[in-house]
Amino acid sequence: MSSTASHSSSAVSGRQARWQPHNDSRRERIVLAAVELIEQAPAGVEVPIIQIAEYAGLAKSVVYRQFAGRDELDRRIRSEIADRFVADIEDALDIAEGSIHEILVRTIGGVVTWIQDHPRLHEFLRTGPSETDPDIDAMSALIATIAGSTRALVTGLAGVVGVTDEASADTMTFAIVSMTEATVTRWANDPEPALTRDQLIEEVASYAWHVVDGVARRHGLNLDPEQQLTEIITQLVAGN
């Protein structure tokens, strides 16, 4: 490559690097504006790009300079929504406080609250893939992410007492997470649900507990769902 061509290429790279923070900021403004508008939109109504641009205080042409098209923008929006969902649920999964039953109720309650509070965002998650994995729908990717976080927790605790059956942990956590999301979604979409919110949470928590208890017993562990989880871990370590 000639020195002139090399200098030109370096200049272009330099300009791109200088503009990157500006472009990142604009992309974020567009995505956040879209999320707010989707929250406000009636069920099943698509928010047009021109409305997103106006809400973000930008020209429509700017949106198309930042995103290749509507599909790319929608994938980025779904990723933003999924990140918010995961952050809320992971806070509820804190094992430092509560019994197994309390942690299950707290986490399932978090799922119910999020879906109730953000029905349009939850609906939008189900409309296609996310930015992180364009080959699968965003909701499936979200369930896999939450199950992965839960699995890491479960396998970490299991390792403390010498249980290393990661296959069981993987199947168990995915079953619980997918069952919870599907059951809560069905309840939230029912205009006349048979159960109250609190009844639903307790019911789903009991299903989740029976799955956990069944897997634990298969490995010779008898867990008390009402005992503080940190106490259970301490006792298991002492007896290991």
UniProtKB/TrEMBL annotation:
Region entry Disordered, spans: 1-22
PANTHER family: HTH-TYPE TRANSCRIPTIONAL REGULATOR RUTR, TRANSCRIPTIONAL REGULATORY PROTEIN (PROBABLY ASNC-FAMILY)-RELATED
GO molecular function: DNA-binding transcription factor activity; transcription cis-regulatory region binding
The name this protein goes by in its record: TetR family transcriptional regulator
Domain HTH tetR-type: residue ranges: 24-85
Keyword DNA-binding: yes
DNA-binding region: 48-67
Gene3D superfamilies: Tetracycline Repressor, domain 2
InterPro entries to which the protein is assigned, alphabetical: Homeodomain-like_sf, HTH-type_TetR-like_transc_reg, HTH_TetR, Tet_transcr_reg_TetR-rel_C_sf
PROSITE patterns: HTH_TETR_2
Record keywords, A-Z: DNA-binding
Record has DNA-binding as a keyword: yes
Biased composition range(s): Low complexity: 1-13
